[in-house]
Write a structure and sequence with these properties.
The structure holds 3 protein chains of 3 kinds. Chain A is α+β, with helices and mostly antiparallel strands. Chain A contains 12 helices and 5 strands. In chain A, strand 4 and strand 5 form a beta hairpin. The longest helix of chain A is centred in the middle third of the chain and has 37 residues. Helix content of chain C is 36%, strand content 27%. The radius of gyration of chain C is 19 Å and the shape is globular. Classes of the chains: A alpha+beta, B mainly alpha, C alpha/beta. Chains in contact: A-B, A-C.
């Protein structure tokens, strides 16, 4: 029973990704709400090492952009001035991890604004918005998953441990929730709550809604584990020396649920981040001007944006590495628990 | 027989439970939306008063529930304030559109998933399996929202597909055959998005189910009796692998109404999804309730269908023995 | 009291609910009566599903009887409430058949063996570890292995741990539910001898449950033969083995492998 190393690698990768988003204020060059009406929908600007005269510069640099003569949405680089990229610059105020006030940014430029991932309709830097929007989406996903798992584990453990009519009732209710199409339920729940609320309230509202929808599946899994753990001989033995129920739960039964809960966490977090993104994309999530990955994508619902401004799709790709990390973690954890039996190569040679 | 009846009972209880849940949700709506209706200039105050009386909001909850169920069973699903029409015909049209997409997509997805999954399982660990598993893993990592928008952008940049809607502007003047072709052309993109998002899970399940059966002792025994490979695969292995796949199929049927919401919204397909969304934004609560109820009924029926199919297909269940 | 344990007309019935609400009653134990003298061993022998394990759980106060009495050390424990039972249970300890299942694989040997003491809340951590050490010595587990997990012990060692755990609360009666069945042949003898030694040194009383009549004869003073929930024969060990009375007993004797069986083929019953 030596724990395999697979899942730890995924966990490290995820920690790094979350760390970057957690320190989004540092990595983002600008404040996400900062507008620049002169530069709407600027395409991503390129970093150069070699200038137009053929000289190689040690410092990466970029060119400022300006509107092409005669066009109102085509931008071109002004190659007359080489603007160096600066690292560890002082910029807009933010709070690192939401706590420590700071003005230090990973990179920036003093002479002109640099849009590594382009800008939106108000000239706001997309890179900054994606990084800081990630904080909202990820936090909503993590908290929502936490709520669901807490509810699910509580109900599942109670149902499994006490059995009898309590178990029957709780599991019927769980079946009910599993039977409901979750996206529809999510939207419906959101519908029955006030539409226009402050961003903070909306945020917590969403977490509660997301969390309240998904508890049934983890509850059933935890219940299964508790049911089988309850019948183990060592639990019987402990009863034999006079152990009380609380002790049995704490020492023998609940530790067995940890692997199920962790695996469920790895599966649920990305789903809930996606749920928040979906809600925000549809206009039911965190409202402007707060950015979240979903609301950043909302502008794509306009045909003109879809056709001309492809970089507005970038926020959608931001979630992919997280999905990859979480799914990898989940299947590594499942293999650890022995449920991934198909993954091992059987004697497939015969066929 | 008992098993069948039990599942039927469970399904019915589920439906009743869902109806109660949905009804309760509607009563939770803050504020009286009839007040909002009064603010709407399109609806005359007389209509408001009449509807108010009809719905009898001051009666106790169980009574209202009873009247609601009663109305439901008579085909009356309430009134849509945004569309100014009864809800039922509205839902019917939109449901039909959604089913057009999802039934096509489901059939295509299964038609692809079965051979791919079987091929993957029979070549476990070798190149075809690795390639297929790699592709499904890559697809799985892309959430359906991302996929739908991505596909749409692809359409827009290449100009190969129409960028939304169900029919072109000039559709009225076309012959029936041309109308059909126009419809099919509009369906391509959403169906593509739906198939791509459903395929990886299906392929994985088929692969898992078949691989597990291929490894079973009874199959090795049959092989040692000299039964040819092809017969072994189709007659023996697939039969045994059918159970989990039938459940999965039932689930596919169940999500026919609810799985395509995002794709429909992104691609402007006039189905149940966009209707629900608009209803939410417009606070058109009867439509919301109706939509949720419809898709839930589908889901519950789909699961029940899966149980019924397993019952029919697996003699062990019929006899009451535990299935594995 | 000369007889430590007296069981009178014990009956245990289960109600199993069938599909549409009808109840079917299963009589697990019927009219079971026996007693065990202090310091001696009674073997309960029978085939599978003869109700042996159920009887063990009933005597260990882990299951409630449907009817009948159990008198332990002069007290009628069937009349006890839950609180009183909790005081009695430490005096009757169980050793299960499969130590791989009766020991929690997450904890170390020392923790497992001293768990009963943790439950009773009597000693602190240091004292529990000391007690564990002395228990290890009693059952023959090397001290270096104290911190290891169950997976790193052999089958015989695990059963020793289970016995050590049962001894930690200084019980009077030890119920051993097929303690040797899951062990290899050679190891069985070692554990059997350990049990005999412990009985002599600690003055323990054993209720020894097994399907192996030969082992029962080797270890016990009296044998009770069970068949389908009833005690069909109860007598001193040597008498039963030499002159079995009932059909069931004869079948069990015929089923035991013996050396030189080729010369005396077992009777086909």
């Amino acid at each position: 029973m030596i724990p395999p190393r697979g899942w730890q690698r995924w966990l490290v990768a995820l920690a790094v990704l979350h760390g970057i988003i957690g320190c989004a204020g540092f990595f983002a060059p600008y404040d996400p709400a900062e507008q620049d009406r002169e530069r709407p929908y600027v395409p991503p600007m390129r970093i150069h090492m070699v200038d137009t005269a053929g000289h190689i510069h040690f410092r990466p640099f970029f060119y400022a952009v300006q509107l092409r003569a005669g066009s109102f949405d085509q931008f071109e680089e002004r190659t007359d001035q080489v603007l160096p990229l600066q690292f560890l610059v002082s910029g807009a105020r933010y709070r690192l991890l939401g706590l420590v006030p700071s003005r230090l940014h990973f990179f920036g430029a003093s002479a002109s604004r640099i849009y590594l991932l382009g800008s939106d309709a108000y000239g706001r830097d997309q890179l900054s918005r994606i990084l800081l929007g990630g904080q909202i989406s990820l936090l909503a996903g993590l908290l929502g998953a936490g709520l669901t798992l807490f509810l699910g584990a509580l109900i599942g453990a109670a149902a499994g441990f006490y059995g009898g009519w309590r178990d029957g009732l709780l599991m019927r209710v769980a079946e009910l929730f599993v039977a409901l199409p979750w996206l529809y339920l999510l939207l419906a729940l959101r519908a029955f709550l006030p539409l226009t609320v402050s961003p903070l309230r909306a945020f917590f509202l969403i977490i509660v809604v997301i969390g309240a929808v998904g508890w049934a599946r983890p509850a059933r899994l935890v219940r299964g584990v508790v049911l089988s753990a309850k019948e183990r001989d060592y639990v019987r033995a402990a009863r034999g020396f006079g152990a009380k129920e609380g002790y049995l739960l704490r020492r023998h039964i609940l530790p067995e649920t940890s692997s199920v809960i962790l695996t469920q966490a790895a599966i649920l977090v990305p789903q809930f981040v996606l749920a928040e993104m979906t809600l925000s994309f549809l206009g039911l999530g965190v409202p402007e001007p707060v950015a979240s990955w979903g609301s950043l994508l909302a502008s794509l619902q306009q045909y003109s944006v879809l056709v001309s401004y492809w970089w507005m799709y970038m926020p959608a790709l931001a979630i992919v590495p997280f999905f990859l990390g979480y799914l990898g973690l989940a299947s590594a954890l499942q293999e650890d628990a022995g449920t991934g039996k198909i993954e091992k190569v059987t004697s497939g040679g015969r066929w | 027989m008992r098993y069948f009846l039990r599942r039927l009972m469970q399904g019915t209880f589920l439906l009743i439970g869902v109806s109660i849940l949905t009804f309760l949700f509607s009563t939770l709506a803050p504020g009286n939306y009839f007040d909002e209706m009064r603010l709407n200039p399109q609806i005359s105050p007389e209509t408001v008063a009449a509807l108010r009386a009809q719905y009898q909001l001051d009666r106790p909850l169980p009574v209202r529930y009873g009247r609601w169920v009663n109305a439901l069973l008579h085909g009356d699903m309430g009134f849509s304030f945004a569309y100014n029409s009864p809800v039922a015909p509205l839902l019917w049209v939109r449901t039909r559109n959604t089913l057009l997409l999802t039934v096509t997509a489901t059939l295509i997805a299964w038609a692809l998933a079965l051979p791919l999954g079987i091929w993957s399982a029979t070549t476990l660990g070798r190149l075809p399996d690795r390639a297929i598993s790699g592709a499904t893993a890559a697809l799985l990592v892309i959430p359906d929202l991302v996929l739908a928008i991505g596909v749409l952008i692809l359409a827009v940049r290449t100009g190969w597909f129409p960028t939304g809607g169900m029919a072109s502007a000039a559709v009225e003047g076309l012959s029936p055959v041309q109308k059909l072709r126009d419809l099919a052309w509009h369906m391509e993109l959403p169906v593509l998005a739906l198939v791509l998002s459903a395929l990886p899970t299906l392929v994985r399940h088929v692969r898992a189910a078949v691989a597990e059966v291929l490894d079973a002792p009874f199959l090795r025994a049959a092989a040692s009796h000299g039964i040819p490979r092809r017969t072994l695969l189709y007659r023996y292995a697939l039969r045994a692998a059918a159970n989990p796949l039938i459940s999965l199929f039932g689930f596919s049927v169940g999500s026919l109404l609810s799985g395509s919401l995002l794709v429909e919204v992104v691609m402007s397909w006039p189905g149940l999804g966009p209707l629900l969304l608009e209803a939410i934004l417009a606070r058109d609560l009867f439509v919301v309730i109706g939509g949720v109820l419809c898709s839930t009924v589908f889901l519950v029926t789909g699961n029940f269908l899966a149980d019924a199919l397993i019952y029919w297909a697996d003699p062990r269940i019929r006899r009451g023995a535990p299935a594995r | 009291m000369e007889r430590l344990l007296i069981v009178e007309k014990l009956e245990k019935r289960y109600a199993s609910t069938q599909l549409l609400g009808t109840r079917k009653e299963v009589k697990a134990l019927q009219d079971v009566s026996f007693s065990i003298a202090r310091g001696s061993t009674l073997a309960l022998v029978g085939e599978s599903a003869s109700g042996k394990s159920t009887l063990a759980y009933c005597v260990a106060c882990l299951e409630r009887l449907t009817s009948g009495r159990i008198i332990f050390d002069g007290n009628e424990i069937t009349a006890f409430d839950e609180k009183q039972l909790r005081e009695v249970r430490p005096q009757i300890q169980l050793v299960f058949q499969d130590p791989a299942r009766s020991l929690n694989p997450r904890y170390s040997a020392s923790e497992i063996v001293s768990e009963p003491l943790l439950v009773r809340g009597r000693l602190d951590k240091r004292e529990r570890e000391d007690r564990a050490r002395s228990l290890f010595a009693q059952v023959g587990i090397p001290q270096e292995k104290a911190r290891q997990r169950v997976a790193e012990f052999s089958g015989g060692e695990r059963q020793r741990l289970a016995i050590a755990r049962a001894l930690s609360l200084e019980p009077k009666l030890l119920i051993l539910d097929e303690p040797l069945s899951a062990l290899d042949c050679s190891v069985q003898a070692q554990i059997a001898n350990l049990l005999i030694e412990l009985q002599a040194s600690l003055g323990l009383t054993y209720l020894f449950i097994t399907h192996d009549l030969a082992m029962a004869g080797h270890l016990s003073d009296e044998i009770a033969v069970m068949e389908r929930g009833r005690v069909v024969e109860l007598d001193a060990a040597d008498k039963i083995l030499q002159a079995p009375g009932k059909e069931a007993t004869r079948r069990l004797i015929a089923a035991t492998p013996r050396m030189g069986a080729a010369d005396h083929p077992p009777q086909v019953v």
